[in-house]
Predict the 3D structure of the following.
Amino acid sequence: MIKKLLLPCILMIQSVSAQIVSYDNSFASSGQYAITNNNNIYRTGIIQNPDKSIYLTYTRSSSSPAGPEYIVSKLNANGTIDSSFGNNGETIIPDYYTAAYSQITRQPDGKILLFSFYDDGAAIIRMTSNGQPDTTFGINGVSKISNVFNDFNSVGFGLYLQNDKIIIHGLTIEGPYNYYKSIYRLNNDGSIDNTFGTNGSIKTMGNFVFLDNQSNIVSLITNYSNTNANVTYPNGGMEKYDSNGQPLTSFGNNGSLVFTTSPGLVGTASMDSSNNIVCTNMNNEIFRITPNGTYDSSFTFDSINSYPFTIITITSVVEKNGQYFIAGQTGTTGETFFISKLNPTGSVDSSFNYYSETTADSDGITDMIIDNGHIVAGKGSHILKFLINNATLATAAQPIIGQPTISFENPVKQNLIYDTKETIHSIDIYSGGKIIKTVRSNHSDLSDLPSGVYLVKIRFANGKEATKKLIKN
């Protein structure tokens, strides 16, 4: 049986089965905003306002002895600098730095909160929506907490809003082998709220800290043991506290749960809208932990067989309406980034599949914002904005530049037989994420392939590409 497959070729996209159809050319320069003199050692943070304007934080290389400058900037919805913000579109945060990631969030009143560090601890900075210091907060807009730092993995600090309160967490060190996470709650004026926890703070062994839908505080401990802690976690565990920082006695053993198996070296972790914690580890696995602290066996992500490439690293996971958008890197040195979408069960959403692009650098996508019709992503020195295909965008964006067809025998018995008006450059056949055979001509012999399901990447002579499944009998 000859099965015809329509393979639309989409402008600026490597996998035409992806739902991303193109860059949004109405944003910045062809959908990409380049940050001038950005220091790529440090991570760029982004948040989006209701009017689609974007706040971004980054570090700019400086010859000053104090080191890189910490910058907050604002882009209009079209990706141009908002010159009314700060000083011609940017505010320099003096005397503070970020070791890896600039935490930024927006209060309901439009004011901006930033979490950074100074020599002796944490600095929480609040500014007005136009980029000026909010003098009603802390001292001239800055609240300092000593002995709270970024952790060794550059991920263990954070900033949350809890109604009219502010939750921050970071690493505290009290001597060799005596370190833990401190969680503080601040009042709206930047002062420490002494009604929270013990005199305003909580001690926890958690590598990652979250605020759930009930304003409870959840601490995820991943394969961590500290002999000075009240509870040791040789395989990791979870701690839960109520909204006021007291142990949530209904959870585990008086608020603590010790895991019986280790989650491994967790690289990223985030809490979804159902209070599940979604984690990635160093083996590029994605798994989910339920609110009661158990591994969710209904969620399975197959990183090896889901894509026709080998994932080097997963850099971001963002949930939207129960589904998960993931970003990562592939290629010899991570020079190719990809964005994909997973169903609630962890399988790849076939209507989205993946988008991939090879760039001149190996910067990974860190922050992603998913809204109706767009994905905004921070990648090294760039902010990228993509169009997501739907019924209205396909007409408005007009990214489709041709719809060539290719017909081939599927299932294949012995020879790969195809019919197309396009010139074929090559057809790569993948199994287990690796190329096992490449053919370039019609009627190529595939009798050496075992029966099974394969992924094939078709490269046309005009540079277009497509990826489809192939069944071999």
